[in-house]
């Protein structure tokens, strides 16, 4: 602990007038190295001591004037620790009293909660002292700074006369769904609005879409019916189904596990669950696969050089040895992991870094923009990225979602061993094997049939219309067997629109936009999809005209109805102005008719019920 204090202070024991050169070393119990503290460093000492002792209340800094006497005097490190302990003791006692009852209740349920999470009792790793999370989403002090979500503004209705095109990047991430599940089921809290990404809720589930019958990597499926939350509107579902690849037929894999073993991972929901999840994945690997393990805390290191996938005992032993401790230098870890992946690159195979973390990067490169820039640059080498998030309390969802998006990757949140099995076993081929990259969707609406529209979800995946044909513009990736779904709520031209065309002066140098003969057809819209093969830089185009069958909602397929119910649930949690008519009773009735024997759909009903007890 004394060494930690000295490190924070930016100094080490010096031989000089304040220290005997023959004195015992700094690690000996009798040593008391002299440290000169200024006001800023004295504050850091207190914070370091606090973190070192796993405190959960961050001390409030004293004004510089109150520290002047200390700053002018040499203070032994041991005395500095004692002084700062005294200073924060009163504040800790006061804040701790407020939380003690709830925390003791949580600790008392550790065995039960471990069973629900599906994790082993975390005594397998010597010295590992697992903790339970604090209140989800809220900061509680050092190491538990609060979950971080990006601000998302709901998509508005747009007038076709002004904006006939809608363009966005596809998304196969599912982290938002399991994060919401954790809030509602484990913590009995409504999730923050920023945690709710409606498209990730919808895409958590699989649907019975037609698979490709040609050489294309995926097939497009479109269905239209009445909108369940506004009977005057229409709802159009666009579905993409990636070609299936059996585990035995997937390409050889060059994998690098990039694992966060910093102090913030010292939690029952984090490192123990992480290790078990990685073991599930290792069990699926074979002789044509390779695995390297890079870990990072205060610094990054290679735990296991690239090892054949059939040497499971060696890989498992390396995972078993992992313990949590230290700060979080994620940027350095990413550099080392990509280096290992590049050195063992398999041409024509799967080359992927799997990053497992709570996202609490606090050493080295920590800014989201710098990390994203680094990952986007590394992706050009042909090494893709999967991001697995763990835990609550300091989970940086915003950074991890952006990181995976720019690094040709996917993002999942692992809250239970069941979720780990879903992502790393059941959907292994989709998680690892990319069948198409930079997939973009563009819709052109027929102005004679559609007055206005809005895209449900995908708010942070919107693209400029000109980006659709720009092959330099990054977009989303589709894995083997993945389903991607998007809904458009459409206001027919015969119905009063919630938006009007923009009132601007007539243009002096251009004529107004006129309709073409194609507008007289019965097409509602045209769907266009651009994509690239994983190892190519030039895109291909799919274009399909879409007609509206006129179906009532009850006539829609069961998958359409279930996905619409999931969308309604996400819209309700986001509390958009357009979604006031959505209610949980209707969602429950709609979804319950389309669950079947799908355990994940059955679980969704439980999540809706949990929200009903909280939503007022």
TrEMBL record:
Compositionally skewed regions (Low complexity) per UniProt: 17-36
The VWFA domain covers 254-432
SMART domains attached to this UniProt entry: VWA (SM00327)
Transmembrane regions listed in the UniProt entry: none
According to the record, the residues making up region (Disordered) are: 13-36
Which protein is depicted? Answer: VWFA domain-containing protein
